[in-house]
Design a protein that fits this description.
Layout lengths: L6 E5 L4 E6 L7 E7 L20 H22 L7 E5 L1 H10 L2 H6 E6 L7 H10 L1
Helix pairs in contact: 1-2
Length: 132
Amino acid sequence: MLANSAFVVVADGSSAHLYRNTGHETISLELLETVTPHSLTHDEGLAGNAPVEQSPKDQGEATFISQLVHKLNSMALAHKLPAEVVIIADPTSLGQMRQLYHAELKKRVVRELPKTLVKASVHDLATALSKS
């Protein structure tokens, strides 16, 4: 069961939706914010050099994931995240995200789902969370 007030991040390489579970006995997700590359204000970019074979699209997605995790890390360090965080992301993005988690965020991540659900309805997200 997903805790009341748990924070749920649903992401892919081009956008993310941040939700809070408001349900007590059920999963009821409230959309808090939609994050896109344009909504992130800092210009973090990729750490290190991108592989030569990486396309501009892949580089853009990696940069977005880096910026998103930077935002989540900052929220964790500022104590603006609850004790339970769930990350749902496509397998490639999730793998990139894991490498960038700060220890404070890592302590809060209680579940990860390697699924592409960024365009899913709230009902479909709740179903996926209840089955995992």
